[in-house]
Amino acid sequence: MRRAVLAQTIAELAPEHVVLTSLGTAGRAWRDHGGPNPTFYGSDPMGAAPGLALGAALARPDLEFLLLEGDGDLVMNLGSLLAVADATPANLRVIVFDNGRYETGGGQPLAAAGRADLAAIAAGAGWPAVRRLDRAASREEIRAAVGELLATPSGPALLVAEVDQEASPYGGPGEHSGAEARVIFQQELARWEATRTGMR
Amino acid sequence: MSERAEQIVSRLSAGGVELAAYLPDSWLTPLIDRVIAEPRITHVRVSREDDAMAVAGGAALMGKRAAVLCQNAGVLLSANVLAAFALHHQLPLLIVAAARGGAEDGFFYQMYKGQVTAGVADAIGLSVHRVDGPADDWLFERASEQAWLQRRPTVLLCSRDALLGAGS
Fold first, then answer.
1. CATH class belonging to B3-164
2. Which of B58, B63, B151 sits opposite A54 (nearest CB)?
3. Cβ of A55 and B18 within 8 Å?
4. Across all residues in chain A, what is the average pLDDT?
5. Residue contact B89–A82, C-beta within 8 A
6. Which residues pair with A158 in a beta bridge?
7. Domains of chain A, start order
8. Taking the domains of chain B in order of start, what are their residue ranges?
9. Is the model's pTM score more than 0.95?
């Protein structure tokens, strides 16, 4: 499964979600191939994205959140799975882009890559709904798995999607500072919410 | 419930805090228990302090004021998240930290925390206040406002008396 296909499928099926991404290839795939959803692109430090998503979801229970998470980001803070499981945010879904290595950093494998099962770890941490999607999944299977994740009656729910190992070089410094990126997201979100509620 | 904890939570709520993520310290136990019982504050258990900072930052991103309750060791642990996440994105959050390792603390292993935390927090770029007792209670209320106006984390380094009451 190519990252682009997964991002495109998410964009088709999740137009009503606020998207948060971790640093790295998951966020880059969404930026290049995702939808127009209000999106906050996470930056350093790796390992903070699940906590960020948890805080956001708890702060705004009226919105649906989707975290696009890199496996490298997740393994830097596996304890965050416990915090999310404990808080049980009903409005948080997570898709882990699982390629088993630090793609942007040079392709080095994660510790225990190929042996560790992130879906099993999440289930063992107490997540009530966990799914796994094989690397060889067809487009139909990808669509079904993402659809099932989004249709889970109550969160948190997590899908570990095995994606191909594809080069993902640094894209340059970006156009905006961290503070500017935060303001842009908040403004995008405000406009999106106003549109949805007809309050423009 | 501890009267001291009641006073602190009242101040935190008056300052607009609606979410608190925490890890225990024995000096924080009454405050954490009171926060858990407080319906105006969503409480979040974490397993590392830097995760608490991320949770609070996520709440701030969505427009909610949030606090982290932890030992000062958590401030040291969280240096990267505070600098690279909270300060990078200018996300305000309030840290209520038990200032272990002061003159009133009786453990060898706590001493380094008292020696280095304020300096490290200052070097990271946080606004740092010492809270030594009830006379400083206004900070529990106003520090979240300061964080909000400065768009950066503010840390309160709280003595044993400040958290548990004089002579506890």
1. alpha beta
2. B58
3. no
4. 94
5. no
6. A94, A130
7. 3-197 (3.40.50.970)
8. 3-164
9. yes
